[in-house]
Amino acid sequence: MAYLALDLGAGSGRAIVGTIVDGRICLDEVHRFENKPVRLGDTLYWNFLSLFENIKQGIFLAVKKGYNLKGIAVDTWGVDFGLIDKSGHLISNPVTYRDSRTSGMAKEVMQNISKEYLYESTGIQQMEINTLFQLYSLYSKNDPSLCSADKLLFTPDLINYFLTGVAANEYTIASTSQLLNAKTRQWDEYTFRQLELPYSVMEKIIQPGEIIGNLSKAIAEETGAINAKIFSVGSHDTASAIGAIPADGDNWAFLSSGTWSLLGLLTDEPVLTAEAMYNDFTNEGGVNGKILFMRNITGLWLLQQLIAEWEKKDEKKYSYEYLLSEAIQAKALQSIVNPDDAIFTNPSSMSTAIETYCADNNQTVPSNKGEFVRCVIESLALKYHFVVKKLNECSGRNIEQLYVVGGGSQNDLLNQYTSDALNVVVSTGMTESTAIGNIMQQAIADKTVENWHEGHEIIKNSFILKSYYPKDNQRWLEVAENVKHLFV
Question: If 0-12 CB within 10 Å is exposed, 13-18 middle and 19+ buried, where does residue 443 land?
Answer without folding.
Answer: buried
